[in-house]
Design goal:
Largest sheet: 6 strands, antiparallel
Strand order of the largest sheet: 1-2-3-4-6-5
Radius of gyration: 14 Å
CATH topology: Aspartate Aminotransferase, domain 1
Number of strands: 6
Distance between the termini: 29 Å
Strand content: 15-25%
Structural class: alpha+beta
Oligomer: single chain
Number of helices: 3
CATH architecture: Alpha-Beta Complex
Helix content: 25-40%
Shape: globular
């Protein structure tokens, strides 16, 4: 299935104003955590690669909060029954979906500033845990 959005700008233009603000807030956190990330559209969403490997994807679909999906790319086999070994989330911001994939829900705007440093730290730890 081809991507519906060809560019980040097209993706953003396709979002409601509220959703776009949440996506922009999450994009800012990602870029602050690791400026070397390359931002592309993949899976109809903003996706971030580091050294050519997909590592983060923004999920703005549905009615729930915008989420950052943390993953290890497409090369590693995913085991949904295995426990994750990632230790870089001391505040337990992540929801685990397998041993190599988790999501981080963007907190409500009123809580975001208080969690900003912890979110950036989780992203940095995730990217360092290659």
């Amino acid at each position: 299935m081809p991507d519906r959005f060809a560019t980040i700008d097209a993706f953003l233009a396709g979002q409601s104003p509220e959703r776009r603000a949440d996506v922009e807030a999450l994009r800012a956190l990602v870029h602050q955590a690791e400026p070397r990330l390359t931002e592309i559209i993949k899976w109809n969403s903003p996706d971030y690669t580091l050294d050519g490997v997909d590592r983060l994807t923004i999920n703005a679909a549905g009615k729930g909060p915008v989420r950052l999906i943390l993953h290890k790319g497409t090369e590693l086999a995913e085991d949904k029954q295995a426990e994750p070994t990632f230790a870089g989330d001391p505040e337990q911001l992540l929801t685990w979906h397998s041993n190599i994939r988790a999501s981080l829900a963007l907190p409500p705007a009123a809580e975001l500033e208080g969690k900003r440093d912890a979110i950036i730290a989780v992203i940095r730890s995730w990217l360092a845990d290659a």
